[in-house]
Amino acid sequence: MCGVLLQFEKSKNIDLKKFKEALELMEYRGPDNQSIVFYDDLDKEPRVYNGEKQKNNVSLAIGHNRLSIFDLSDNSNQPMLDRNTNKFLAYNGEFYNFSDFSKDVSEKSDARVLFRQLCQHPTSIFNHVNGMWASVFGDINDKKLYLSRDRYGKKPLYYFQDSNQFIISSEIKSIFHLIESKRHVNATMLGRFIYGKLSPFPIESMTFYENIHSVRPGVNLVYDLKIGTLKKHSDVRWHELDSIDCFSMPEKELEEQMSHELYDSVRLRMKADVDVAILVSGGVDSSFILGVANKISDKSKLNLYTCHIYDKLGNLSADTQHSRNIASRLGLPLTEVKTESHTEDSLLNTLETLTRYSEIPVHYLLSTIPTFQLAQCMHENGIKVCLDGTGGDEIMGGYPSSGSLAIANAVMRRPLSTMSHYSDWFMSSNSTFNEKIYFFLRLAKKSLFNYKQHQLQNYPISSSLGLLSNKKLIKEIYKISHSNFIRNNMCSIGERQLYEIKNYNLPFYLGTADQFSMANSIENRAPFLDYRLIKYLGMKNKYKVRNGYNKYLLRRLIPNSIGNDVAWRKDKSGIGLSFKNRDIFSSSSLDYILDSKFVRELITADSFKKDFEKEKVFFRCMLSLAVLDHKYQISM
Asked: Which residues contact 48 (CB under 8 A, 6 or more apart)?
């Protein structure tokens, strides 16, 4: 993993000292080496910048912060240059199957292999890359820059463009340092945050800020240095989408195919020339990864990490105990990270730290704080790479959606599908018998009367809209509620999975993992996001949900060494809170929020003061925005 920065100016007025400052703002993304290459003129030879006093005008600068994972030698430092052909590469990511494209069996550098391939095929090689990447490849003789981002968007790649300059960066803060502009918030992304609650990582090409854009996942762009235009070049292929409906095969054959591909995905992501850790939560996804790694890897090189997970009463949950039991069965040491019990002041300090890295409003109720604390601990212990279970729910059918799927099908008057999903919900739910009967009657009512409420009416934020005074923002929230957030109206598991992958949960979890792990120089790898596994979205529902168990087929494939008590558990807690609600909903937090000029321009302050204890979801959103404003002075 690394940090990439590029600046091109037609006026040739690039300040290399300032460029270096911008690159150093994300030094934590690559603390092992920093290099800057620049061109006085595109028709001249490139030179290396070592901090000397700048003598000439500069038209193009390329910078790279390196986190060494494959080939720890200086031979893999970037930007990579081919002076014979006048081409370069600045790349952030991992090319797991690079050895398949190297004639030299002793080759250890995925970056060198990728560079050689790009020199021949500027974009098409990415169709065959199994990995994650944010890449900038330049052909100076042809006056072209090629930008590419991996299929899921694991690695960020932002850009800014005006009539004079073009800037590409792994982080937004470096762009703002170069353009010296105020941070104007994108109203659509702000509305998405307030309505959807999750931190607004880029969706499509939009970011949280006006004029700052993101390369879309799975897209190759090309920038013409001669005329200053940026265009889409091509899409990165998903080979497996061609066969997404090919599941007429017998169950045993399907199981063998899935097992082979999952094992190979873990094998590829265990490859590194540095220490690798596995995050263990006691759940199905991480336990599968650990079980496979334990079978195929050297046990002495397995490092297990977990964070303490607490229930609503403040007691350690069953998740932590299951993690301990798994480690004990496998005879492996487990590092337990105690999630700090925050006070009112320390919570605010933590939010300020996270916001400094994220540059967007932080959603702090889910995995955000534990991800950061785990990465801190791993970094202190010399770890550079960790594997986690991100994507397992989205790919294998893990979210508990049977109840809402039953409602959606009832509204659409699909009785057989309604009863199928209701049956799955009935078997998996911990509700009482009377509650299950009541839910059945609700389904009947919706089916008979085609009762379909507008989604905003049932959303936790709906009652808070009266506290907003910014009409533009209110309009955006209603627009989002009508068009983008339609998950609950989808009638099939597959539709829900695609929605989570493209628009909701997965972008949030990938963004969180990248920002807060890389803040501690830790690379996250997600075996379930191997591009070959995308086709399992199309497998029949009985392989996703059966007998009250989600991710049914995946559970069947968990190695026996993990234990059936883990493989077939239904009581997964998830990561709880590391603070008490009273530490958030306090008078000092209220004062902190109202001290933000940005927030005051969004809300009706008197009404907010009066109702803040009732509108907890809205209050948390405003607190996140206030922290962001205090750090970066944002405006509409």
From this structure: 35, 36, 37
Return the pLDDT at 331: 95
Share of the chain above pLDDT 70, in %: 92
> Residue 376, Cβ neighbours under 10 Å: how many?
16
Strand 549-550 with 2-9, pairing: unpaired
**Higher pLDDT among residues 40 and 493, named by residue:** 40
Tokens found for residue 424: 């799955």
d(CA 240, CA 403): 30
How is 86-134 classified by DSSP, letter by letter?
TEEEEEEEEETTGGGG-S-TT---HHHHHHHHHHH-TTGGGGG--EEEE
What would you report as the CA-atom Rg of the chain, rounded to the nearest whole angstrom? 25
Range of 97-106, 233-242, 246-255, 411-420 with top mean pLDDT = 97-106
Q: Which helix (H) or strand (E) holds 630?
A: helix 616-632
Prediction pTM value? 0.93
Please enumerate, as own/partner, the contacts of 125-130 that have beta carbons within 8 Å and a separation of 24 or more.
125/101, 126/220, 126/236, 127/236, 127/237, 127/239, 128/97, 128/101, 129/95, 129/97, 130/95, 130/96, 130/97, 130/268, 130/530, 130/531, 130/532
Among 236, 259, 62, smallest CA distance to 154 is for: 236
160: its two tokens: 């800014």
Asked which of 36-45, 186-195, 330-339, 365-374 is least confident by mean pLDDT, the reply is 365-374
